[in-house]
Amino acid sequence: MRPQDPQNGKTLGRVMAFLQDAHFLTPDEAAQALAVAAEVLGQALARLEKAAGAGDAGACAEAAHGLKGNLLNLGLPDLAALAEEAFAKARRGDLDPARAAGRTLGTALAPLLPDGRPPA
């Protein structure tokens, strides 16, 4: 599966629709939930980047696993699959997929993140 192109706003629309339909939230409640989730996603992406940069496979796996769960809770199974792949490979000590996943996820999730861009 390929992540949605973040430039066309589909990621944000998908998440808002999922939160309202699957979790029965009002538009205001969905926006509030998304604001909280955006902070969590930004922090998790930063942890993944830091762990990959430090060569810490265990911390990479932990960050990728957390991202996977958060992405599933937001109705983004295609992005969760990417995080799952990074998790599995990081557990085996292969950090390159975690680095690549962090970049791809950061770009795909930029419309949801507080500053509209991946953590630096």
Automatic annotation (TrEMBL):
InterPro entries on file: HPT_dom_sf, Sig_transdc_His_kin_Hpt_dom
GO molecular function annotations of the record: protein kinase activity
Residue ranges annotated for the HPt domain, each copy included: 41-100
GO BP annotation list: phosphorelay signal transduction system
Domain of life: Bacteria
Coiled-coil boundaries: none
SUPFAM superfamilies in alphabetical order: Histidine-containing phosphotransfer domain, HPT domain
Protein name, UniProt field: Hpt domain protein
Highest classification ranks of the organism: Bacteria, Pseudomonadati, Thermodesulfobacteriota, Desulfovibrionia, Desulfovibrionales
